[in-house]
């Protein structure tokens, strides 16, 4: 019951946003490890706060005020002012802690109070997410009843800068997406002593349509990672991640009573009269019956009672639903109009609705409040009033006018489209020229490489190592020639026309080649002793060049 | 660029002259001020829209529709043009479905705007390739992609402009137009189009035009039976 009350309070707070001053308490992450910090926010909409609100937390948490922001939003009712107070919440000891309610003093208005939020703190684990990305996919409950709504959560924790994650969810056989329950996504940052963590959480409410073991295969995600590596287009890369199998057991409902409404979950029903005071016979009195709960309400309809002395007319119904703080909440509003036909006190009876209460695991009959209506006058007065007694009234309908003239601007404008080909040619010329140069260079290199390879009839490049002379100076000359020929082929020229330094500058891995040349030069021309691994050095360089 | 802007400004006169006459209730005076600028070519969307309003005020719905359609080609995102066109069409009876205005994207962008967008993308691609060549790193694929997309948009824009030029629309004015099997006054009559019918001109043969309605019906009408807004 406490959970449902909290849920209704949250729902009511949402409805109140458009009506007047509203205060709310939000926390960026509800699960923390000891030593981690996150942001806490008190938001005041439609009112002006007096001073900085004080947030009281248990001793196992600390909270420090950090910033105050002010923003303006254009709404249908005019410009709305929003104040936001930011705090840093740090977890000190494990446990589950309620935070709030926070009372906010308002200028010219009574103080407003936020709802309570809960933060769970667990022991610190020194292990960071593997590869800095960790995924958890699960149902928020392992065992539910047939027809009940359960949340499926996919959570990604990243220890690196990420932009977003795109989830590929399972097919959810035996489950359906809850009507009006859009996927709720949140992004939070946790300040960890070992580095900030980004938590992306997606929650999808699903309604169980089948029974038995409904374990779902793991969800997959594609994470867009923000990278500073040069060469990656737009500084982004992506990586695939996989979650875990999500176990779920759906229990069949017990045999229902005859008056079972089909609702499964925790619900409340309220009945409200639009005009509480005495009304005249024949007057229209709005009557609203609202059913709120954590189950699906779309197929549910209200059976209207027959009440003596009152005519009841349906005025439509409306279903709202949303995912709020990881829970699905739905509301169905039945709008009716009562027209009393007799004077006296009319008693609107309690409206019984039999639901399957998942918390009690039993069928339960909810009842709305019984309300009374005082009706003044006699039955003859119930007449429909007309705006035109003699039927001569006419209704003047304003003619639809054409939109007004343009009073400024150019009278003539040249067409741009015929100039587009010229524009494209001009702005595209540098890029096309570069592409042509690249293509020509590549073609030339390829052609010369082919040409050089075909023209050589004898041993060429690395092939010369198969039959090395034994005489040292000749042996060093052949090694040098082999390197030069292979380098020339690599850069698309001939050994005779090779500029060694320039060719080496074109190579991405030139260290081994340069070293081999240097050793050979010292041995051949500076009289240095040949190192015992000279042949290996040359072979390594040739391998690089090939 | 400054000279071009000054030239445009010099042409701004007829717009304000016509507005003054229109506000005084002198509708013929307003039309006389605005129409020559359109007939001389390159009439702006604002001018054509105002002319539509003037003809509407004069009670000449077909010409009003013709000018508003011409304005819609130059100002496709203007609610005023769309609303007025819908209002005038709603006052007509027994006219076929208006001939389509061209490709889908022309309801959002003019060919010139699409071409400008394409040119900007090509410019971005070119700049990216230059940047890459100077840095000697990175992939050329995204920049080539921008360039190719820009060229596609540019070609689309020219095709759209070509379509608007070669397949102009016409509106039946003044009296019903007889639509014939062939470009000959003796040819069999296929259908009669009421004033306000919006047609697409598919072909020209002497003083006859092969026109098509939005329902797909085709036939030959005399050039004088329809009104075409000069580009």
Could you explain the architecture of this structure?
The complex is a heterodimer of chains A (546) and B (231). Chain A is built from six helices and 30 strands. By secondary structure, chain A is of the alpha+beta class. Mean pLDDT of chain A is 81; it is low at 1-19 and 381-395. The model of chain B has no long low-confidence stretch (mean pLDDT 85). Chain B has 231 residues and is α+β, with helices and mostly antiparallel strands. Chains A and B meet through helix 2 of A and helix 1, helix 2, helix 4, helix 6 and helix 7 of B.
Q: How would a textbook summarize the main sheet of chain B?
A: 5 strands, antiparallel
Q: Number of DSSP helices of chain A?
A: 6
Give the H and E element order of chain B: HHHHHHHHEEEEEEE
Name the quaternary structure. heterodimer
Helical content of chain A stands at: 10-25%
- Report how far apart the termini of chain A are: 76 Å
The gyration radius over C-alpha positions of chain A equals 39 Å
Helix/strand-derived class of chain B?
alpha+beta
Distance between the termini of chain B: 23 Å
Number of helical segments with 4 or more residues of chain B? 8
Shape of chain A: elongated
Q: Which spans of chain B of ≥5 residues are poorly predicted at pLDDT below 50?
A: none
Rg of chain B, Cα atoms, Å: 21 Å
What is the residue-averaged pLDDT of chain B? 85
> Which outline of chain B best applies?
globular
